[in-house]
Amino acid sequence: MLSSFLNIPYSVGRGSGNVNCGAIFASYLVFDELHLLDPDRSFTTVLKVLQIVKGIVPV
Q1: pTM for the complete prediction?
Q2: Would you list the domain boundaries of the chain?
């Protein structure tokens, strides 16, 4: 999700990176098992992304 949000193609070719980014903003974001994320790294990053997309993307 993060690589798609940042428009850095991880699972697709470089020319298709914008497709993933667009999909993030056209989807419902559902996060499960957040308690398993590292509180100083991953969890903080997810919270920041959610603050940025608040009001734009349903979460």
Answers
A1: 0.61
A2: 2-53
